[in-house]
Amino acid sequence: MFQAIADVLRAIGGAIATVVTLPFRAVARLFGGASASTHGRH
Q1: What is the pTM of this model?
Q2: What pLDDT, in 10s, does the model give residues 23-35?
Q3: Calpha distance 28→12 (Å, rounded)
Q4: How many CA atoms lie within 13 Å of 10's alpha carbon, on the beta-carbon side?
């Protein structure tokens, strides 16, 4: 029973982590591309 609960919590945690990190990745990609284009490529 505890194994099933652990699996459910792990699945929920993974889903939450994915939803939370996706916007930050998109913003980081946008700022990263903007900073790279404005500062020029090394």
Answers
A1: 0.52
A2: 988 899 888 877 7
A3: 24
A4: 6
Alpha carbon distances (Å) from 17 to 3, 8, 9: 21, 14, 12
With helix as H, strand as E and coil as C, how does 1-42 read?
CHHHHHHHHHHHHHHHHHHHHHHHHHHHHHHHHHHHHHHCCC
Which residue is it, tokens 């790279």? 36
Question: Alpha-carbon distance 24 to 30, whole Å?
Answer: 10
Longest dimension (CA), the chain: 57
Rounded distance between C-alpha atoms, residue 22 and residue 19, angstroms: 6
Side chain identity, residue 16: I
Q: How many residues does the chain have?
A: 42
